[in-house]
Specification:
The structure holds 3 protein chains of 3 kinds. By secondary structure, chain A is an alpha/beta fold. Chain A contains 12 helices and 10 strands. Chain A folds into 2 domains: about 10-345, Thiamin diphosphate (ThDP)-binding fold, Pyr/PP domains (Rossmann fold, 3-Layer(aba) Sandwich); about 350-390, no CATH class. Chain A has a 6-stranded mixed beta sheet, sandwiched between helices. In chain A, helix 6 links the parallel strand 5 and strand 6 (about 205-210). Chain B folds into 3 domains: about 1-95, RNA polymerase II/Efflux pump adaptor protein, barrel-sandwich hybrid domain (OB fold (Dihydrolipoamide Acetyltransferase, E2P), Beta Barrel), CATH 2.40.50.100; about 100-235, no CATH class; about 240-445, Chloramphenicol Acetyltransferase. Chain B has helices spanning about 85-90, 120-125, 140-145, 165-175, 220-235, 250-265, 270-285, 335-350, 355-360, 425-440, 440-445, and strands at about 5, 15-20, 30, 35-40, 45-50, 55-60, 65-70, 70-75, 130, 130-135, 240-250, 290-295, 300, 305-310, 320-325, 365, 385-390, 395-400, 405-415. In chain B, strands 11, 14, 15, 16, 17, 18 and 19 form a 7-stranded mixed beta sheet that branches. Chain B has a 4-stranded antiparallel beta sheet with strand order 1-8-6-3. Chain B has a 4-stranded antiparallel beta sheet with strand order 5-4-2-7, with no helix packed on it. In chain B, a hairpin with a 4-residue loop joins strand 4 and strand 5. The longest helix of chain B is centred in the middle third of the chain and has 16 residues, at about 220-235. The termini of chain B are far apart. In chain B, about 40% of the residues are buried. Chain C is of the alpha/beta class. Chain C folds into 2 domains: about 5-185, Rossmann fold (3-Layer(aba) Sandwich); about 200-325, Rossmann fold (3-Layer(aba) Sandwich), CATH 3.40.50.920. Chain C is built from 12 helices and 14 strands. Chain C has helices at about 10-25, 45-50, 65-75, 95-100, 105, 135-140, 155-165, 215-230, 245-255, 270-285, 305-310, 315-325, and strands spanning about 5-10, 25-30, 55-60, 80-85, 115-120, 145-150, 170-175, 185, 200-205, 210, 235-240, 240-245, 260-265, 295. The longest helix of chain C has 15 residues, at about 10-25. The chains are: A alpha/beta, B alpha+beta, C alpha/beta. Chains in contact: A-C, B-C. The interface between A and C is large, with 65 and 66 residues.
Chain lengths: ~400, ~450, ~325
Amino acid sequence: MNTMSTPSTDTRRLFDVHRGEAAPRIAPDRSVPPAATLKKWLRDMMLIREFEVRCMQAYQDKKIGGFCHVYIGQEAVAVGCVAAMKHEDPLVTAYRDHGHALARGMSARACMAEMFGRVDGCAKGKGGSMHMFDKPNNMFGGHGIVGAQTPLGLGLAFATKYEDEVMRGGKNTRVTLCFLGDGALNQGALHEAMNLAGLMNIPVVFVVENNGYSMGTSIHRGTTMAHDLKSKAIGYGIDAAVVEGMDVLETYHGMKAVIDDARARSRPWFIDLRCYRYKGHSMSDPRKYRTRDEEEAWEAGDPIGTLESFMLEKGMITADESKEMLKGVKAEVRDCVAFADASPVPADGELYTDVYMEPWGPYPGSSKPSMMGGGENTPSFRAIERSEDLL
Amino acid sequence: MPISVTMPRLSDTMEAGTIVRWNVKEGDEVTSGQVVADIETDKATMEMPVFDDGRIARLLVPAGQSVKVGTQIAVIAEEGESLESASKGGGSAAPVAAKPVAATPSAPAASAASSHAASASRDEESVTVGGQRVRVSPVARRMAEEHGIPLGSLQGSGPGGRIIKRDVLTAMENTASRPSAPVVAAPAANAQSLAVPVAPASRPSGGLVIAGLESERVAVSGMRQTIARRLVESKTTIPHYQVSMKFDLDRLMAVREQLNTELASTGIKLSVNDFIVRGCALAMARHPYVNSSWAGDAIAMHKQVNVGVAVALDESKGGGLVVAVIRDADRKSLRAISAESKAMGEKARTRGLAPEDMADSTFTVSNLGMFGVEHFTAIINPPNSAILACGAAIKQPVVRNDELTVGYEMTATLSSDHRVIDGAMAARWLKELKGLLENPATLLV
Amino acid sequence: MSALREIEYRDALREAMAEEMRRDKRVFLLGEEVAEYNGAYKVSKGMLEEFGASRIIDTPISESGFAGMAIGAAMQGLRPIVEFMSWSFSLVAADPILNNAPKMLYMSGGQFGCPIVFRGNDGAGGQLGSTHSWCVEGMYSNVPGLKMAIPSTPDDAKGLLKTAIRDDDPVFFLESERMLGMKGHVPEGDEILVPFGKARTRREGTDCTIATWGRPVHFALEAAEALAKDGISCEVIDMRTIRPLDVGSVVRSVKKTSTCVVVDQSWSFGSPGSELASQVHRHCFDDLDNYVHRVHTADVPAPYAFNLEQEYLPNARKICEAVRAATYNA
């Protein structure tokens, strides 16, 4: 078995689809979006990369604690997929989630402040690197347990469909993108979710960011049929496609075709999205399980460089503009690091908030017992320190 | 009120005892001191007397069975009490069956704690009484405090003697129904201090609270408890008898005066008692039974002669009595005995003696001569078999060589354990001592 | 006037769900056999007919999948009711129900709540053996962020379930197979809700407080009846919810009785019973006449044999023994 991960030789030919008998054929519309759109994508990818570089630095400076999984190398996946979604489409992902959050529109300041565990973070410093949530941008996290987000993604899609069809009596209008790594292919939760999705016609797209490694284990060592992951979905009656993940244009085109189909037919999809993570699984990973040659082969097809070359070639951007753009991105990330550093740590009382929406109600006839302790806005069952409070 | 009989602790290492035989049966009349059972301890089979008069209401533990020290083994109905009610009342598993009594007039508040004083701080009260940890449930503790009931006055009916709410409630009821009983801890400001006969021994006999007498209740020190316990045990378990003899101390007094004059510059001042200690120690050589201990099925003949000297402590400091031990007194000179005796007495009155200063006596001398006492008897200091009580060397008319003259005479009384020392043996030993004391030169060599 | 209406515990559960589904279209029911089979225990009988297959949803035997799906739906704003045929089966869904539902609000800094109800049979049924007899309250009540209700009578079953469905937080609703057929008066009316965190005194007494919840409430009442004949007066407090736990009611009672027996059908180690006992010791320290006695399920896996299962579970006899010991009447 070939355990070496290799980039595809012709990325434009990668859109390989398996469809159920009754489904209409689909083909990506490969028309090139306007320059302004591509510039935004380029900048978004630059931003993600610069952001992750600074995260690594801050991690080494002990500004960031816990685990930190960076997205460098996979920028085209988040940017291309999000570009193919509508704003109202829910997105949920695993723990390597900074890229998705930024692509979805989360403020880089809030994202970095969360990394720093500060009160201006998207979750007030309570979530951390692996748990990026952004309700206004329909970003449903950031989930730390491998595969756990797949039933959630299914449920988000179930809910949007339920809202459209049962509550409003209309037709399904939304699609949920549920990202997972190739490591999650081996978790039971995904398979239960795929079975239910196929069974119940749920408009969810399971996007496997197939970077070839689950932590330090090559996909060939951990997953059957690694050469043809579509086969995983076929068994559940789910349409499946291989999509290029190192070329944002191709990612966008492929995903656009898939998402549009899922929306129109209210059906699930399964995507084997080929990409590569340049860095280790987490900050402590020395990457001994793969060769430098392999890494260089993938880095040669770097998604940022690929888009930049394409745009330069097509005259959609100048070299100076590109340089200026990068400069701006660096300044922005510098700013958000400074912002995060200056942001206060959460107040001690914050420990006890957001545990319950309303610990004691509201229920008819119920008064708020004083056993809560703390202040009025302390939604948690606190340990009762004063016995008198119970009387 | 039924009286509980518990498995006694008959040796220092005894934790449980087996009832070899009951000498009584339910319904039998018993009197204080009567041996009702034979108890096999870890060391010997011993007789077990009772300490109360009455009738056996129940025998709770059959012969042949082993139970822990403190376990109730029988119930005695007091005079006028029916066997039935006694066996009910005293039948609880509590080690001491006497029911919680807050100074109920006629009842033996069978507890060391019954005399517990108001002067003790509440904190101490809740945790320990007389150095013994009191088990008490939190609510019982709180209620007792709120109602001014000393925990020491309560007998716990819970597991392990834990004082529980019910015990406090009972005490409160008793208080309410006997308003005149001197229950409450706090003494009236002008209360006279009366010598209330309180016997603080937790076992075997209880204290007594006398109705109608106004009395101040004085806290019992640990030492007082020990004295009480040991002496009650001694007086009630050892068959004492006394033999007295007069001693002509003319020569001894002369020698003493002479020596003290000579030794004045060295700071040494020999007391009469130093001579007596030396004499007693030397007398043991030919009468080893006086220097021995009853060991149940044997007599332990001690190879050392360690003479204990009773030292009274200053009453202003709580009083009490300790026994300082002069080790190997038969091998020590008068001068050494004197120095040691003086040092020990000093230490006892100031810093207090260390346990090793008081351990391992084989015989004891108690001397009240300095108070002018002529004659008294002493209680044996267990595990000794004898104690010598010495009166004062009094200058008085005496007959010497058939002539009436003036001389020094002392009366000493030997209390002996009849299990070890028979009357003639005691007499012979006294005669030996007499020979030594009346020929003091023998004491100098 | 007609006699008080009496219905079964299972009917009370159904009434609660049906009323809330009529009231709020966001509410739906999913689980194994809930629709076409009319419910494995007939709790959802007839609901498919009224609400249709889009709201009464049969799932395959796939607890991790459908529990997680319901949580996702709740994050989006729906209010799912997830029926576990048995809470024993929820163990395969432990990650979604413990790692996602109760933590979502916190992890997202207050952005995403999880208004969901998980409900099903808890505790030993009848000789179901080790794997099917779980009392999950011991394990699950350890997790902050969830609420837990455990009704012991039909009226509470209905009132607490309605409250659970309207609650904005995840609620673990523990029923009992052995009580589904129990009949009791349940008042009619859509707005009769039982608040969480309010214990119910099932019997008043002066000598000993028995605090319990769920099925053992009935054992405690049986024990109290027996003890009353011996002159021991027990106060039986039905906690009704474990999170929130109405410690105050128990404390007030224990301050009166001075003794307390906690009866809990879960295992003793690290259980709601140990928590309550600890809190009573904490708050009634100077009021206790004895340590808090506890009656639990035996600390062994559930046995199959009838007699062993009887000995395994809390029962009136064990409660009587505990009360006697606690009140020094042993």
